[in-house]
Amino acid sequence: MKYIEPIRVKILMIMFYATGVTGMIIGLTITPPNAVMIITFMGVINFSLGAFFTFVFLTQVEKEPDKRKKKRKGN
Questions:
Q1: Within a domain: residue 51?
Q2: 67 found inside a domain
Q3: Which domain holds residue 19?
Q4: Cα dihedral 36→37→41→44 (10° resolution)
Q5: Which of 35, 55, 56, 68 lies at a C-alpha separation of 20 to 30 Å from 15?
Q6: For the chain, how many structural domains are there in total?
């Protein structure tokens, strides 16, 4: 998987966790009876995406600098 900057992954994590929790709370309390299941399910999907990006954040290896661009000491 391509390296993603940690700050971007953290922003995605926060965004998905916040919308997931909000969607679950709204789906279980405010929505009319015919839309409870779909709104709650969408909140669970967002929460799961937050968990996926947490996994990416915790397991990705730090990007190594490109050795081709490194200047030689002799010149």
A1: yes
A2: no
A3: 6-58
A4: 60
A5: 35
A6: 1
Residue 71 lies in a domain: no
Among 14, 17, 44, 47, which residue's Cα sits nearest to residue 28? 44
Of 1, 14, 3, 24, whose CA–CA distance to 49 is shortest?
A: 14
Tell me the C-alpha distance between 31 and 23, whole Å: 10
Q: Given pLDDT bands bounded at 50, 70 and 90, which one contains residue 1? A: confident
44 contacts 22 by C-beta, under 8 angstroms: no
Which two tokens mark 55?
Answer: 């996994």
**Does residue 17 lie within any of the structural domains?**
yes
pTM: 0.80
Radius of gyration for the alpha carbons in the chain, expressed in angstroms and rounded: 20
